[in-house]
Design a protein that fits this description.
Layout: E1 10-14, E2 19-21, E3 29-35, E4 37-44, E5 47-55, H1 63-68, E6 75-78, E7 82-88, H2 91-100, H3 102-147, H4 170-184, H5 195-199, H6 203-206, H7 219-229, H8 232-241, H9 244-279, H10 285-298, H11 305-330, H12 340-354, H13 356-371, E8 376-377, E9 380-381, H14 382-388, H15 392-400, H16 404-418, H17 428-454, H18 461-469, H19 479-489, E10 500-502, H20 503-511, H21 526-533, H22 552-570, H23 591-594, H24 598-609, E11 617-624, E12 629-637, E13 641-649, E14 653-656, E15 672-679, H25 683-703, H26 715-725, H27 734-744, H28 750-763, H29 774-783, H30 788-794, H31 798-822, H32 834-842
Parallel strand pairs: 10-13, 13-15
Antiparallel strand pairs: 1-7, 2-6, 3-7, 4-5, 4-6, 8-9, 11-12, 14-15
Helix pairs in contact: 2-3, 2-9, 3-4, 3-9, 3-11, 10-11, 10-12, 11-12, 15-17, 16-17, 17-18, 20-22, 24-25, 25-28, 26-29, 29-31, 31-32
Protein name: Crp/Fnr family transcriptional regulator
Pfam family, one: cNMP_binding
Organism: Leptospira vanthielii
């Protein structure tokens, strides 16, 4: 029986386990807890959960419902023996009491503050578990496809996977759509599943954010909390001076509590849905693996036991771990789980015993491989190599001759970092250690590079591996990784037609002033920073810089800190786990598969240019006084510099659209795109994203203030206009507008939205597969035309025919205008200067 609060001003003793107030019943009293503790619990859907406990004197349990004027959203039960006073009151009277009796008002607000803090912790725990479930399901779904590639009969081996919303089985639909997104974002599935793949965060490929944090930035809440945290006498005096502050604080806290309570309900429902998808019913994800084990046991499956059984063992252990965490949070096991886990455990136990000899042999084989052998691998004497790279960290530190105190701290932190189970763990203490190590590492890198350059590029192999790949400590990599790095170190770079550079070659060009230095993350140039440092010296132009300040060493230091170091960090893809030193924990797919050579960059680039032949085009001014040309705008393709930096990750950075920002030749200068030496994904996809960013920024830079002026048609202006007003477009259906709105939530900027559509344009639309909407297709066909052979191929399709005719008419008119204009510049043989001829050719349809 709940408390009878109809009697005013009563003091009631309550026994442990008794209910004080029932969820769903009206709140008709203000209650003060004098001693003991109470438990606040609720039912969300079919799930019962204890939210938190309130313990101690001078607390007001249930104040939220009274001030909000709603029924109790929870049940309050005595946790221990307690004493409670109740005062008959409604919402209006309660609000008046807060300001008329300041001590009661402070009591109520402090209680709400405590409840909000506890409720927030509960939301975080549920959100964290839901994120773990989501990541586990996404990874297991991908692995299920790797094990059973025939589950999608319309997808040929190695072909692109497209989304399909018509699949009835919800798990199969989830797997298929996930894999489509995985490929679209450059993800590469391993040939066979590994435990590393299952444990890795592939969120950037699955379009997921597995963050366990809850976004909550209530400035007013935190401000009031600070007031309440000061000396009680001070806060009491403040509220007595202005009681309306209490009322405002209470109203704000009631609103915050409601928002958190609704968020709790949402997260709990989503968690339940995920758990049902994973465990409940014949279509559950775990049942897919049960079926796979059945097929394997009866001989219908050709999957090796050494591949399948470790995966199902991982799935079993992970499921049990997640279910245990659920029980800890909710206080009881998941009610509707069924027997899928029990079946998996039974099958796993039987098959592990049956194939134990094969699993043991595989384990021994892996252990032998990890210990290394003394054989010659790929022409490399591994025994001699191990001796040469012994104590690599000491070799590099001695070579660099950095400050001994820095070396001492660096060495201590490296030992500590190597003691962690995973040095790349995003936990704050680990991140702090990595940041401190990274600071010294880059000082070592700079000094080592300078010494290497001045000594005719001669250095110990450990130093050369660091400069090229970010190698540092042989114990942080497997032997196979080191052999792979050394085997690649002295391979020639080929002779690509595009300006593609190894990072060391690029830094050498900076040192020798062959190319200008890059901007930093704030967009500042070497000259601008130097001018700021020497602001009292009267420097107005680069020519005024004193020679002592503008040295090769100074430019090298600037390039490493401004461009090199940030891009090593950014191309890693995950700032929270970033570490500039290459380790085996970075390597999620075989190193040979993610190694990027100059030839790889060239192939990816030519693939894109074979579709988007105007990717690097811009209008520049051509002058030729000898034949009377004072100023003619002509189209020119200027391919940016591609720089391979010593990092590993799933990101390519478009760093600059131009290398010179002012003066003559600025618009004709190359941009800069940084590529990690080891790309953990599809190089072409990441190149597409970087080139999309390049197109966007170059257009903005070229047009200046008119970059988003629809009166001057351009990629940026037309696409920005589409983003802003697509909901009013007559060319898009309500369903499509809703879909676009949902998709846009995934992207932070208009440039990111453009890059995604650009990738769809090049990869799918160029094949005649319609993946962008008709508004975007119209913008892109105008500003990002396909190569001629592709235009001719798609022009027969209804979706493209009108666009093609319009494009053809515009280009034909432009070509005719230039042809007539250029006649006066022809020589006696009827030939035009190369620049004008190329511009005329550009407008040919």
């Amino acid at each position: 029986m709940p408390l009878d609060t109809s009697k005013n001003n009563q003091k009631i003793p309550v026994n442990p386990g008794e209910v004080l107030f029932i969820g769903g019943k009206a709140s008709t009293s203000m209650n003060i807890l004098h001693e003991g503790s109470v438990r606040v619990e609720t039912i969300l859907g079919d799930t019962s959960i204890v939210l938190y406990s309130l313990e101690g004197a001078n607390l007001t349990p249930g104040i939220f419902a009274l001030l909000e004027g709603t029924p109790y959203p929870y049940t309050i039960r005595a946790k221990t023996s307690c004493v409670v006073s109740t005062y008959v009151m409604n919402q209006t009277n309660a609000k008046k009491t807060l300001t008329s009796k300041v001590s009661v008002g402070v009591m109520a607000v402090r209680t709400l503050l405590k409840e909000i803090g506890e409720l927030y912790k509960r939301v975080l725990s549920i959100k964290g578990l839901a994120s773990k479930f989501e990541q586990t399901m996404d990874n297991l779904g991908a692995v299920y496809y790797i094990l059973n590639p025939s589950i999608f009969s319309d997808v040929a081996p190695g072909a692109l996977i497209t989304r399909d919303e018509n699949i009835i089985d919800p798990v199969m639909k989830l797997i298929r759509n996930n894999l489509a997104g995985f490929q679209e974002h450059g993800g590469m599935l391993p040939d066979k599943p590994t435990i590393n793949f299952l444990e890795e965060d592939h969120g950037e490929f699955f379009e997921r954010n597995y963050s366990e944090a809850v976004e909550w930035n209530d400035a007013e809440f935190h401000f009031i909390r600070k007031i309440l945290s000061v000396n009680p006498k001070i806060s009491q005096a403040l509220f007595e001076a202005d009681p309306t502050l209490l009322q405002s604080a209470a109203e704000s806290y009631v609103k915050t509590y409601r928002e958190l309570f609704e968020l709790l309900s949402k997260e709990t429902n989503e968690l339940s849905e995920m758990m049902n998808t994973m465990f409940v019913g014949e279509n559950a994800l775990i049942e897919k693996f049960n079926l796979t084990l059945d097929l394997f046991n009866t001989g219908y499956s050709t999957i090796p036991s050494t591949v399948l059984l470790p995966v199902t063992e991982w799935a079993l252990k992970k499921s049990k771990s997640l279910l245990d965490e659920y029980k800890q949070i909710f206080g009881s096991p998941y009610a509707t789980i069924g027997n899928s886990i029990d079946k998996l455990e039974t099958k796993q136990t039987e098959l592990t015993a049956k194939y134990g000899h094969e699993l043991s042999a595989q384990k021994n084989k892996e252990e032998t491989a990890s210990q290394g052998s003394e054989t010659i691998h790929a022409g490399i004497d591994t025994k001699a190599l191990k001796m040469e790279l012994l104590n690599s960290a000491s070799q590099i530190l001695n070579y660099s001759q950095v400050d001994p105190e820095s070396v001492k701290e660096f060495s201590t932190l490296m030992v500590k970092l190597k003691s962690f189970k995973n040095p790349l763990d995003p936990e704050p203490d680990n991140r702090k250690i990595r940041r401190t190590i990274a600071k010294t590492y880059w000082e070592v890198y700079k000094k080592s590079f300078s010494k290497w350059l001045q000594s005719g590029k001669q250095a110990p192999k450990a130093v050369e591996l660091m400069l090229r790949y970010g190698y540092f400590d042989e114990s942080l990599l497997d032997e196979g990784h080191i052999v792979e790095l050394v085997g690649r170190l002295y391979q020639g770079g080929g002779n690509p037609s595009a300006p593609i550079h190894y990072g060391t070659d690029w830094l050498e060009k900076i040192y020798s002033r062959e190319v200008p230095t890059s901007v930093d993350e704030l967009g500042q140039t070497f000259f601008e920073k130097l001018k700021m440092d020497l602001k009292d010296s009267g420097i107005k132009s680069e020519k005024d810089i004193p020679p002592d300040y503008d040295t090769g060493e100074a430019r090298l230091g600037s390039e490493i800190s401004s461009m090199y170091e940030p891009n090593v960090r950014l191309t890693s893809g995950n700032i929270a786990s970033h570490f500039p030193i290459l380790t085996k924990y970075h390597i999620t797919i075989p190193l040979e598969k993610c190694f990027v050579s100059k030839e790889d960059v060239e192939k990816a680039l030519q693939y894109i240019l074979s579709v988007d032949y105007t990717a690097f085009n811009r209008e520049v001014i051509y002058r030729n006084e000898e034949i009377g040309i004072k100023s003619e705008f002509v189209q020119r393709s200027i391919i940016p510099d591609f720089i391979l930096v010593p990092s590993i990750g799933p990101k390519i950075m478009m760093w600059q659209d131009l290398s010179i920002f002012r003066g003559a030749g600025s618009k004709e200068s190359r941009g800069r795109i940084c590529i990690p030496h080891f790309v953990t994904g599809d190089l072409k996809t990441f190149m597409l994203e970087a080139i999309a960013a390049f197109r966007w920024e170059l257009c903005k830079n070229t047009l200046g203030p008119d970059w988003n002026n629809v009166g001057i048609p351009s990629i940026t202006a037309d696409y920005t206009d589409y983003v802003q007003f697509f909901k009013k477009s007559k060319d898009l259906s309500p369903e499509l507008k809703e879909k676009i709105s949902s998709e846009f939530k995934r992207f932070r900027t208009d440039r990111d939205k453009f890059a995604y559509d650009y990738s769809m344009w090049i990869r799918y639309e160029a094949e005649g597969v319609q993946r962008v909407n008709r508004v975007v297709r119209s913008i892109f066909y105008r500003h990002i035309p396909f190569h001629k052979n592709i235009r001719e191929k798609v022009s027969s399709q209804p979706a493209y025919s009108e666009l093609h005719n319009r494009f053809k008419n515009v280009r034909t008119r432009q070509h005719k205008e230039f042809e007539n204009k250029y006649k006066k510049y022809m020589d006696a043989s009827g030939n035009l200067p190369k620049e004008l001829y190329e511009n005329l050719t550009f407008y040919e349809v």
